[in-house]
Design goal:
The complex is a heterodimer of chains A (220) and B (214). Chain A has 220 residues and is an all-alpha fold. Chain A has 10 helices and no strands. The N and C termini of chain A lie far apart (36 Å). Chain B is built from 7 helices and 7 strands; from the N terminus they run βαβαβααββαβαβα. In chain B, strands 3-2-4-1-5-6-7 form a 7-stranded parallel beta sheet, with helices on both faces. In chain B, helix 6 links the parallel strand 6 and strand 7. In chain B, helix 1 packs parallel to helix 2. The longest helix of chain B is centred in the first third of the chain and has 14 residues. Chain B is globular. Classes of the chains: A mainly alpha (220), B alpha/beta (214). Chains A and B meet through helix 5 of A and helix 3 and helix 4 of B.
């Protein structure tokens, strides 16, 4: 079996040590406030997909990949800054960066490579290490290139759906049905940087309220 | 970056993990060790909050971190301890003179172990009120732990034995220790009562000898 495909699966797996199991992307707060009727879950996932993951995170990933292909450290840093600044709630910024750092730590970059340089910058706290940017660097390093974007979509989907299972909002079979529906007809197109956008106020506000929730299972 | 000694503490809910930390931190502080604490609460930051209140006068509250575990206490310290490792590295980076970090797992069952990449030394705790047969059930946590602590020994006279072969009607501490030796060999087992402060000196001694080497 091709190594690249196996690596793609490996970094998308919830067993991969990025701490993704601690993230609900606002779901915990929405569930707690009873703002997530079961019959609306597919629509909510679709909204995440269109308004955040495809329109922004995937775009950051794609442009970071291009920057990585040209060894353009300056551009990578800029994209990292933009990605970091785009997350309105502190806990979303923090969890995205933690995932990025964990991904960097799990990678074994050869000395002198872009990945090794970026890892060092992250350790010195000279870059944020936002997950979509690091995923691009990792994808380039593993020869996954644009396929890494599929991992980004999948990891985000699993974070949200798995959190619903752990909160006993849906069962494991319903989760699979939800994932099947969410994975249908996904078109990933690379747009211009000037068209970057993300807007999901429901989730942003929920995340901000989650920050001060004393009883919670998830970091975000 | 220098790495401190990290000690993981696991055990069932209510066995006394948080109280153990509350008792150990002042002792190690008095011995001149600088201590940090990471508390994995399954559903709240209650343990971290309690530790900040009870230990706040002994150690800087910034040295106490709470971590949410996504409802997966095992995963957070064993399969994917990246968030805990990140928290430990944060403490170490901000406090280069830190000697020791206690990492408290969320209350869990007998299969709990700590990833060796997270904890250098693993303490597993049970308590007498949980039943004296707990030890003979075995389990990874009991077997693999570097130190097994049996807490609440003062309650033994008030708890009915759950071992049919026991010569006593109440919780049989001798059998618990015997079972522990069968499962753990020569690895240490210490009987304590945190409430009455029995056995703590022995716990400190074991940690100093086998984890801190000083």
């Amino acid at each position: 079996m091709p190594e690249k495909l196996l690596n793609l699966i490996r970094i998308s797996d919830s067993f991969f040590p990025m701490g993704s199991f601690t993230i609900s992307q606002g779901m915990e707060q929405l569930v707690g406030e009873k703002l997530l009727p079961k019959d609306k879950l597919t629509n909510v996932l679709r909204a995440y997909m269109e308004r955040i993951w495809k329109s922004f995170d995937f775009q950051i990933f794609s442009h970071s990949l291009e920057a990585a292909e040209h060894n353009d450290l300056e551009m990578l840093t800029k994209l990292d800054d933009v990605c970091y600044a785009s997350k309105i709630s502190e806990e979303n910024r923090s969890s995205m960066v933690k995932m990025g750092i964990n991904l960097l730590n799990a990678m074994n970059f050869k000395k002198g490579t872009l990945g090794a340089s970026y890892k060092e910058l992250a350790q010195q706290e000279k870059v944020h290490a936002s997950y979509p940017v690091i995923l691009a660097i990792a994808s380039r390093s593993m020869g996954l290139d644009q396929r890494g974007g599929i991992s980004l979509i999948y990891v985000n989907l699993i974070e949200v759906v798995a959190s619903l299972v752990r909160m006993a909002e849906i069962d494991y079979i319903e989760a699979q049905a939800l994932l099947t529906e969410a994975m249908k007809d996904i078109e990933l197109k690379i747009g211009q940087l000037s068209d970057l956008n993300q807007s999901f106020p429901l989730v942003d506000i929920a995340s901000m309220r989650h920050e001060s929730n004393p009883n919670r299972m998830f970091i975000s | 970056m220098a790495r401190t000694v990290r000690i993981g503490i696991g055990g069932p809910i209510g066995c006394g993990k948080t109280e153990l930390i509350e008792k150990l931190v002042p002792r190690f502080d008095a011995l001149g060790f600088k201590v940090g604490v990471i508390s994995n609460d399954v559903y709240s930051k209650e343990d971290a909050r309690r530790l900040a209140l009870t230990l706040g006068k002994k150690i800087n509250p910034d040295l106490i971190l709470g971590i949410e575990t996504g409802g997966c206490p095992h995963t957070a310290v064993r399969d994917d301890p990246s968030m805990n490792v990140g928290a430990a590295e944060k403490l170490e980076k901000e406090n280069p003179d830190l000697d020791l970090i206690f990492i408290e797992s969320g209350g869990d069952n007998i299969t709990l172990t700590f990833s060796p990449r997270l904890a250098d030394f693993f303490i597993y705790m049970v308590d007498v009120a949980g039943g004296d047969k707990t030890i003979r059930k075995g389990g990874l946590g009991l077997r693999k732990a570097d130190l097994l602590i049996i807490n609440k020994i003062d309650l033994a006279p008030y708890v009915e034995t759950t071992i049919p072969e026991s010569a006593t009607k109440t919780a049989n501490l001798d059998l618990m220790v015997e079972d522990a030796h069968k499962i753990r060999g020569d690895k240490p087992t210490v009987l304590v009562s945190l409430k009455k402060e029995i056995g703590l000196d022995e716990v400190v001694k074991v940690i100093r000898e086998k984890a801190l080497f000083k």
